[in-house]
Amino acid sequence: MRPVIEKPKLGIRHFVYVIIIIICIGAMGISIYMQFFRDEKLGVILGITSEEIDEEYRSLKENFLNIFDNSIEVVEGYTGSLNKIRNQEDMILLAYNTQEQTDTYTIDLKIPYFNINSDCARRYNQQIRSVFFDKSESLISATNNNHVIYNVKYKAYVNQNILSLVILSELKEGDASERIIVETYNYNLEENKEVTIEEMIQKKAINIEQANKKIKEEVNSSQEQNIKLAELGYNVNVRDTDADTYQIQNADQFFMGQNGYLYIIYPYGNNEFTSEMDVIIFR
Questions:
Q1: pLDDT, tens digit, for every residue of 47-87?
Q2: Rounded Cα–Cα distance for residues 158 and 75 (Å)
Q3: Which residues of the chain carry a pLDDT beneath 50?
Q4: CA–CA gap between residue 139 and residue 144 (Å, rounded)
Q5: What ranges do the domains of the chain cover?
Q6: Which value, to the nearest 10 degrees, does the dihedral of the CA atoms of residues 58, 59, 60, 64 take?
Q7: What DSSP letter does each residue of 106-167 carry, written as one string?
Q8: 3.40.630.30, 2.120.10.30, 3.40.640.10, 3.30.565.40: which CATH number matches 68-195?
Q9: 3-state secondary structure of 5
Q10: What is the pTM of this model?
């Protein structure tokens, strides 16, 4: 009579081993996938975010430079009263609308101003004139032989009591690198004062720790791409990803734009001759 060999029973320990193996295989799969599809968001792969949301974010970032159509977009209207300089006009008007071309320069200026009668608005208007109009005057009066191309355009958004104005200038002098400057102005229509980044964070109920992590990840991604370009001989901007600049509470250029999303902008051309920038968007 042959002995009966009992099959070993699977205990809890065996199930734990199986689960660990499955997790390891899954992690390896995601790692390999990300190596080949770096543009994909991990949230989509894991099912945390939908492909539609991920695609919207990518589209908003890629099309940031296309928003500047010299108009004001009312995302959600403001219903309170407002003391305007020109009562029957919009909150944002054109201060300078000039197109001119000569042998030495080509300019296209759409420089806006706040049509609001308040100390804060007047301060903003003075800053806008100093940064954008005075620059055009110096370029026109310059005597060098480099042909200059200088464009200024803007976009404004109204989100309830927040009026955000974003101005972009593009400067090309001869063979020098293009320089892009972005300046943002955020105005509280109800209180007639500047809107700070702290107030934006509070209004959007943004988790600061998670926001800073997101900013660092996206800036690091840009830095990795620049390192590769630098190895090929390109002149690129070097980011100090550990700098306090990349803390959301220290952001200088920000605005509330399309769909009420908060845009954090790092336009390196504000301080250097470069067109590089990082755009991070918070829903």
A1: 434 456 689 999 999 999 999 999 999 999 999 999 999 99
A2: 6
A3: 1, 4-5, 7, 27, 30-50
A4: 9
A5: 12-57, 68-195, 198-283
A6: 110
A7: EEEEEEEEE---SHHHHHHHHHHIIIIIHHHHHHHH---SS-EEEEEEEEEEEETTEEEEEE
A8: 3.30.565.40
A9: coil
A10: 0.80
